[in-house]
Amino acid sequence: MKKTLLIVLVLLFQFSFSKPITETQKLSATCKIWGFLKYYHPNVADGSKNWDEQLFQVLPKVEGAQTAEAFSLVIENWLASLGEVKAHESAKPVSKKEYFDKNFDLSWINKNELFSKSLSKKLKFIEENRIQEKQYYVDYEFGGGNAPLQFKNEVKYQDFKWTDKNLRLLALFRYWNYIEYFFPYKYQMDQNWDKTLLEFLPRISAPESEKDFALAMREISIKINDTHASTHMPQLFDYFGDKFIPVEVKIINQKAVVIGLKNDSLAKVSDLKIGDVITKVEGKTIDELLKENLKYVEGSNEPSVLKNAYWTIFNGKTSAFEIEFVRDGKTAVKSINRYKYQDLKIQFPKEEKWKILEGNIGYVNFGGLDVIDIPNLIEALKNTNAIIFDNRKRPHDVLYALAEWLNPESVEYVKYIDPDISFPGRYVWRTDKDKCGKTNPDYYKGKVIVLIDENAISHAEHNVMALQTAPKTTVIGSQTGGADGANYRFGIIKGFSSSFTCYGVFYPNKKEVQRIGIVPDIEVKPTILGIQQGNDEILERAVLFAKNGK
């Protein structure tokens, strides 16, 4: 009797410390370990193992593990099969690195409830004795006109089928670890990246359909809150439609306001005019459509998301559809046309590169200005009282040439962080000071005014940062795109490509630009009435400031 009772107590004791674990817990831990070993383990990060195949081999064993102890044993046996990791003494750095570590977090090695102390200790040893040679799966090097970050030597799987669970998990594991170790703004996400993994694993592991899988891959890329970041796949047009409306719209107060015509003739066919306020699309309000679809729209901040949301509202498969709209105070319903993108034949009217407005105020259209134009621009505008630089269209590479005229001396305007490939997940401040301008006693003495809105993104934001160094600069408009830095585009697996900002950009005082964007000195947002009256309210405010300084 006593012996039986003892056995029962022992079993109860073991069960209390061996509670069953979920599929999501196991896959989440496996994803992290697989990615960690890929970039840290000397016998893996050197490319000597078929690392995808290693994942496929370990997944059935992970699935069979029913307790934390069993899971840890599977992983420890896996580690043992990879060969010895030799301890090494850390070499003294040639130059002291200043680290930016807001992204870096390997604390999960010691905190995961599935890990035995023995497993955690082995993973920590690998971190401390990580690969010292060149990384096989990732590189970071400037030159050649490409983004410096490069994911390389990844098998493309030309025969990829969404029904293959192993390949679906591989796609997720690859993408999640790309972001985990090489996205500089991970710390700024709205949702913790670990929680995002737990949220999407069930949808990737057991999707209800091909559409559910594809949209899950799209949606997880939106979670990183980067205007540069979104995953693309051919199926996206199948789900949302590949036909577009012939006008440009801006979302204001949950309404879609027509602000431009992509093709005058096509817009006329549907009787669409600038200032029309579209309130419903096929019976749904704009607000309802936004709530349904914003999870598929990239953006670092709300203005960027709203700017990029147009296709989720207006695209479709049919050539015509119904809208409700307001014109001249009257609400009406009508059918308008949609077109294949190539059939839109978008018109790009030629615009003056610069001109002089009333009051001796210069105006520069960055969209058409090239560096070879700068000498003639200086000659034309050097005697103006103020110059308005319209930065709402992507500038060409003119910032350094302009800064040499606008500044009396060379000045630092930006700081960068780059990934430390030798210690994945960590970032390093660049040591070189990036400056613009030069010693120039004949610099421009008038007011410098820069116009911005959500269309100013990436290089355009970089352009503003340089212009802000001029002595009398005032920025007018609204929040910019909030994604400053090189946009790296890469493949995940056949049929799925993605992108994100691959290095960090900050002001010289280390203030962030990502997500925040350029903060205007004077905030001005277009209104529905202003658009209907044909006014450029941001430009008008800039002219007023140029004249009276207020």
SSE map:
Layout: H1 2-16, H2 23-40, H3 51-64, H4 68-81, E1 99-100, H5 108-111, H6 117-128, E2 138-140, E3 149-151, H7 165-182, H8 193-205, H9 210-222, H10 235-240, E4 243-244, E5 247-252, E6 255-261, H11 264-269, E7 277-281, E8 284-285, H12 286-293, H13 302-308, H14 310-314, E9 320-327, E10 330-337, E11 339-340, H15 341-344, E12 354-357, E13 361-365, H16 374-381, E14 386-390, H17 399-406, E15 411-419, E16 427-429, E17 434-436, E18 447-452, H18 459-467, E19 473-477, E20 487-493, E21 496-501, E22 504-506, E23 522-523, H19 528-532, H20 537-548
Parallel strand pairs: 13-14, 14-18, 18-19, 19-23
Antiparallel strand pairs: 1-16, 2-3, 4-11, 5-6, 6-7, 7-8, 7-9, 9-10, 12-13, 15-16, 15-17, 15-22, 20-21
What does this structure look like?
By secondary structure, the protein is an alpha+beta fold. It has 20 helices and 23 strands. The strands form 6 sheets. Strands 5, 6, 7, 8, 9 and 10 form a 6-stranded antiparallel beta sheet that branches. It has a 6-stranded mixed beta sheet with strand order 12-13-14-18-19-23, with helices on both faces. Strands 1, 15, 16, 17 and 22 form a 5-stranded antiparallel beta sheet that branches. A hairpin with a 2-residue loop joins β7 (277-281) and β8 (284-285). α7 packs antiparallel against α8 (193-205). The longest helix has 18 residues, at 23-40. The chain is globular. The N and C termini lie far apart (93 Å).
